[in-house]
Amino acid sequence: MKVLVVEDEAKTAAYLRTGLSENGFVVDVAEQGEDGLHFALSHEYDVVVLDIMLPKRDGWSVLAGLRGAGRQTPVLFLTARDAVPDRVKGFELGCDDYLVKPFAFAELLARIRSLVRRGPARQEHRTVRVQDLEIDFFRHQAVRAGQPINLTPKEFALLSLLATRRGEVLSRTVIAEQVWDMNFDPESNVVDVHVKRLRTKLDDPFERKLIRTVRGVGYVVD
Fold it and tell me: Is the whole-model pTM more than 0.85?
C-alpha cells in the first residue's frame, strides 16, 4: 500500500514516514503543496495525508486540484486547524477524513487503514498473490501454501515491496530507501541480512523458491 504525505514540518514528516513504513506502507513525502499535487497526479496512491498550511500551495488548493482532475484518491487532512469552519470546508472540497494535530499515531494509522479499505480504486488490491503465497495488507499477514508465515514488520514491508513489484529486479538502494527510509551505504549489509532472514521463513521450507538474487543488481520475486 502506498501513501503520499504532504507535510512541510520536517520532524512530523520523518515521524510519519518512519511509522507508516514500519507498518508496511510505501511512503512518499512532499514538503510543498505544488510538489504534493504533482506527486498525487503522477502516481497511484492508496491515501494522501495532507497538511493545510503548506508553502507554494496550501492544502485546500491541493485537494481542489486533485478533485478537479477527476482523481478520487482518499485524502486525510492532518492539520493544526481545528475550527469547525475549517473541517466543513475540507469535507466540502472533497476530503475523506480530518484529523487535528497533535494526534495519536495509532488513531492516524486506524483512519488510514479504514480509508484504504473503503477506497474505490484499491478495494480489489487488499491482497496480493504470488504462486502459493498470499499477502493480506490489512491484516498484516502472509500465508504460503496454507501455512502462516511469522514476519517482523520490516520483513513484511520487504516482502510486500518485492511482491507488489513482482518481476522487477529491485536494487539494494531502492529497497533500503523504500523499507528503511535511508540513504544506502554500499558498505551496509542490512538489506542482504533481511533478505536472508526472509528466505529462511518464506523459501527454505518449500521446494519452490520465490526470491531470486540477480548478481550485481538486486533481488526479485518471480
Answer: no
